[in-house]
Amino acid sequence: LTGLMEQFVDLAKKGEHEKGGWANTAYGTSKTGLTVLTMIHARRLTKERPHDGILVNACCPGWVRTDMAGPKAPKSPEEGAVTPVFLALLPAGATDPHGRFVSDKEVQPW
């Protein structure tokens, strides 16, 4: 993953990332990298600390009205917080979702 992210940065600096097969979005590429890193960490936790009860997931709050997203975004900050809060408040002993990408409180295909 690190090598791929470094490849994107190097190509983007030269303006050649699209020729290299990358999307023309640093934001989207970084979000993809972070999601994959989350899945890698989840696999490691499962293997190295299987009885600790730690769940690791990536989540997307959706398009939320913020300074960055602007006033046209359909979700309020409160609505954007629903999925992260849902994941943070999973009951003790929950085993799923783990190593997944979650949006609108639902595991999304990846």
From TrEMBL:
InterPro entries: NAD(P)-bd_dom_sf, Sc_DH/Rdtase_CS, SDR_fam. Pfam families: adh_short. The keyword NADP applies. GO terms for molecular function: carbonyl reductase (NADPH) activity. Keywords: NADP, Oxidoreductase. Belongs to the short-chain dehydrogenases/reductases (SDR) family. This is Carbonyl reductase [NADPH] 1-like. It comes from Notothenia coriiceps. The gene is LOC104949102.
